[in-house]
Specification:
The chain has 13 helices and twelve strands. With 364 residues, the chain is of the alpha/beta class. The protein starts with a strand and ends with a helix.
Length: 364
């Protein structure tokens, strides 16, 4: 049965080939997977996004992204979702933003909210949703263990990446790389310290969103440490990102938060490049210590691991990525979940609670 799925992005970040955040990349992958499988994909996202299905664009705020701008963007998102539900026969709504409670649609169509970020970052009302047919899914077992044991929490659907497209067979260079959103919790300054200790060049890539805390972090913490050996490349599209990761001797992930997954680590492994990551959240689940990289506790150990990474086998990294991080596997699980939710439209939260064990069994 062909489905119509309404994917809803975080209001302040575009989706498409140049997406930086994991939530935006997963939404983009599922948009393409839905279209490829013959389903209808509708996407509510900010202007400038690129989708395979039908984009329902929402204006992007200009200037600094303060609280007023966030609230206005959330209101526009709520209006766009309501309009989409009026215009289209939507079977499932799939929400990806951390602020999804601000534009949760009224009862009716089943809703799936993927939890891309640490559970502690979500507002308290996330864990006591009264809306029927509203389901939460984490993206790793590590994240699920940190979630409150609420009845609408499903099994984890692990993230995936396009491993075949990422396969890199070119030469390695002498630099290390670090990629992602440029913000305090990503700890890029520790990657700089590790690269300086290891005496290797470092290439940083990512987007600085116009939040005051992110701008201040870049200007006060990172910019003063840029040099001929520590360069900032800005945001990269798929092809230059693949080249950067493929040529790097190691990809560094010095995250300071409890990461729920790591698309960067998965992509690096698919390129045949070891990852050196801090021991936070799901990173020890994604990075296989001594095989696809190293899990360390500080910048000094990261520096040592940059050199040790040269002894790891790129083919082993690629093989583990194919076995563990398949985009097809992630897409298949979400498509099955969409079908299950669409078929189980329940009139009350009580009926929905009774369906949880069966949904969990289907999810994994």
């Amino acid at each position: 049965m062909a489905l119509t799925v309404l994917g809803v992005a975080y209001p302040l970040a575009p989706v498409g080939q140049g997406a930086v955040g994991g939530a935006e990349q997963v939404l983009s992958h599922m948009d393409r997977a839905l279209v490829a499988a013959g389903h209808r994909s509708l996407v509510v996202a900010c202007e400038g996004s690129e989708v395979a299905g039908t984009l329902l664009p929402v204006p992007l705020p200009r200037g600094e992204l303060d609280e007023a701008a966030k609230r206005a963007a959330q209101a526009r998102h709520a209006a766009a979702i309501a309009d989409a539900l009026d215009r289209f026969p939507v079977d499932v709504v799939h929400l990806h933003g951390i602020d999804f409670m601000a534009y949760l649609p009224p009862p009716g169509v089943p809703v799936l909210a993927t939890l891309h970020l640490p559970p502690a970052w979500y507002p308290e009302e996330t864990w006591r949703i009264a809306r029927p047919d509203t389901w939460l899914n984490p993206v790793s077992d590590s994240q699920r263990r940190r979630c409150p044991p609420v009845p609408n929490l499903l099994a984890a659907v692990p993230n995936g990446v396009p491993v075949d497209r990422l396969d890199w067979r070119g030469r390695k260079a002498g630099f290390a790389a670090a990629l992602g959103r440029v913000c305090p919790e990503k700890g890029f300054e520790h990657a700089v310290e590790a690269a300086e200790r290891a005496e290797v060049p470092l290439l940083l890539a990512g987007r600085v969103y116009p939040y005051r805390a992110h701008l201040d972090y870049f200007d006060r913490v990172l910019r003063p440490r840029l040099s001929r050996r520590v360069r900032f490349l800005g945001p990269l599209g798929f092809t230059p990102k693949r080249r950067l990761m493929g040529m790097a001797r190691a990809v560094l992930i010095p995250s300071l938060c409890e990461e729920t997954s790591s698309l960067t680590a998965m992509e690096a492994a698919a390129c045949g490049t070891p990852v050196v990551a801090f021991r936070h959240g799901a990173l020890p689940e994604v990075v296989e210590h001594g095989l696809t990289g190293f899990v360390v506790d500080d910048a000094a150990a990261m520096a040592d691991a940059i050199h040790a990474a040269a002894a790891l086998d790129p083919d082993a990294c690629r093989a583990r990525a194919r076995a563990r991080f398949s985009l097809d596997s992630m897409a298949a699980r979400y498509l099955e979940l969409y079908g299950t939710l669409a078929a189980r439209r329940t009139p009350s939260l009580r009926a929905g609670e009774e369906a949880v064990p069966r949904l969990q069994a289907r999810g994994g």
